[in-house]
Amino acid sequence: MAPLLGGDIEYLGYLDHSALVALAGSAAVAVVSPCWDEPYGLVVAEALACGTPVAGYARGALPELLDDPTGILADPGDIPGLATAITAASTLDRRRVRVHAERTCSLTTMVDNYESLYRALAS
């Protein structure tokens, strides 16, 4: 794959968990451009947990996981819009991104949401 990427892109290959977290945490923006409607978007949650703002396409769960202080979304397939979203996301407050992740993606929040859903379905 590396020879196909060109000189501006460095292919890193497999990274263990700690190296991946360090890389994601040092990125200016996580760019997420799913080809299908992901039901959760673990990559987004992991980026947010690292305090890394997200730019991506508004499809699948991404609109539910992100809000203006944590990420910027473009219409699906809008490449110029995604480029604008990347630039805008790079200016977002990383501390607010991390706080958002703690508030919306934590185990406690997930369990509370599932319990609420199960109660609603059972009643």
Automatic annotation (TrEMBL):
Statement: the UniProt record of this protein carries the keyword Transferase: yes
Gene Ontology molecular function terms on file: glycosyltransferase activity
Matches recorded under SUPFAM superfamilies: UDP-Glycosyltransferase/glycogen phosphorylase (SSF53756)
All copies of domain Glycosyl transferase family, residue ranges: 5-97
The protein's name: Glycosyl transferase family 1
One matching Pfam family: Glycos_transf_1
Organism (species): Actinokineospora auranticolor
KW Secreted (keyword) present: no
Keywords: Transferase
Source species, domain of life: Bacteria
